[in-house]
Design brief:
Blueprint lengths: L1 H27 E2 L11 H14 L8 E7 L4 H12 L6 E6 L3 H6 L7 E3 L4 E2 L6 E3 L2 H8 L5 E3 L1 H6 L7 H7 L4 E7 L4 H21 L8 E6 L4 E3 L11 H18 L2 E2 L2 H11 L15 H19 L4 E9 H4 L19 E12 L1
Parallel strand pairs: 1-5, 2-9, 3-8, 3-9, 4-7, 6-8
Antiparallel strand pairs: 2-13, 4-8, 5-6, 10-13, 11-12, 12-13
Length: 357
Amino acid sequence: MMIKNSHRAFLLTFIALLSSLCSIYSQSLRPIRDDVGFCWNAEEMNLFMNYLASEVKVEKSTGKLIGGISVHDDYLYAGKIYYPLFSQIRAKEVVIFGVTHGAVRKELNDPKNVLILDEHEKWIGPYGNVEISPLREIIKNKLDKNYIMVSNKAHQIEHSIEALIPFLQYYNRDIKIIPIMVTQMPFEMMEDASKKLASLILDYIKENKLEVGKDIFFLISNDANHYGEDFNNSPYGLEANAHKTATDNDRRIISENLSGEIKAERIVNLTKELWPDPEGKRNIPVWCGRYPIVFGLLTIKEIAGKVYGESVNGELFGYSDTFTEKVLPFNNSSMGLTAPFSYRHWCGWFTLGLFVE
């Protein structure tokens, strides 16, 4: 009887230890959230990028690329839209402003007025684990605590940041990231938080003698209008004319607010175009990067002004949507689709470069 109890005690201790180690590991390595829409296999990613290179012509701007706005939808839908931006990025460290999607808000009781950071030591990438820049801990330790929330769980549920990693890592196997999820907050608070964050980043740039664009880069994760019954968003109807009207509106918003010089008043206007209307008098397109775009642009504009003494200019690389693109003919892929496409359910997206002259 004593021998059996001894074995049982050993087994329980072993299980507890194993559980503890698994918990520690899960905290240190951020797991993949979406293993369907994105590519996590190195060999397949190589083939996919070769396919995109043969299909997409990229015309490089004469300006200095320091940041960008990126789609985060399925690769088999949006691969051709990702490519023009990422094919020009060779930075060593990338600050990524991500979305706080509904799944996170529901699970975490809808956090607001904060930037969400994580404590993972590394993130999974197709070419090996991705390092975290030391800048994350500086932000965590030095930014006003009222603006910071630390949650591994939030980052494990959210997919808008991880979508960018395979493309970044393809061009730089040693890429380091600074993942920052942006929640809803008033514009005045956003201005204050972005200036304080920019100040910390500027100190980091100066101390480490980094060149903006070459050594450190800034990405804003965003998908444009989510249209149809599943999104409770069909103000123009559910047929071909409605699709054209809604996509034309996306293009108008980009043209009027993001193409050309990113002036302060244009950033303010984005809040009027994209943020919920408390009076319900306007049709607001359902962009899921509505808060990261504003916060990211405020931060990037501040940094560019201090480093280069110049304004930031936006250049659209491509806009499309799931219904227009349908599925890329990339054969024998392990990747799949996480949502359907039709006039009753489609998602718009674009990539846009942020330049200084």
